[in-house]
Design a protein that fits this description.
Order of helices and strands: HHHHHH
Number of strands: 0
Strand content: under 5%
Number of helices: 6
Shape: globular
Largest sheet: none
Distance between the termini: 40 Å
Helix content: 55-70%
Length: 125
Amino acid sequence: MSLIKDCVARAVRISYPLTRRSASAGLGPRMQFSTTNAARASQIDAATVSRITEQEKKLTGLDGPVKGGPTARAQAHATRGRTLDGAAVSDIAQGERHLTGADAPMTGGPAAQAQHMATQNVRRS
C-alpha cells in the first residue's frame, strides 16, 4: 500500500487553493463543500459509486478499488441509503487521502468527482 502512496505522491502535485481561514490559521490546503439544502442532495446510487470507482482506478492504476478507499466509503453511504451531501463528500475525501497519503484531495480525483456530482444534483433541484 505504501508503494501506491509513494507513486501517487511523486506523480501528482496537489493544487488546491488555500482559503483565507486555512491560510491564516496555517492549516494548509483544504476542500470546501457546502450545500444550501441537504434535502436537495440525491441518493448515492450505483452510477455514483461507479464514477468514483473509475476515478480511483485512474488514481491508483489498479484494476479495482482499494479497501478503505473512496469507493469503499461511497459504497458504505450507498448501502445505508444516505445522500451525496457534504458529509459523504468529506468521507470520500478521507478515503482518497488514505490512498495518497496527501493532506488534501487531488484535482480531478474521486473526491472532486463526488463533489462535482453533488453540486450538479443541487443545481438541478
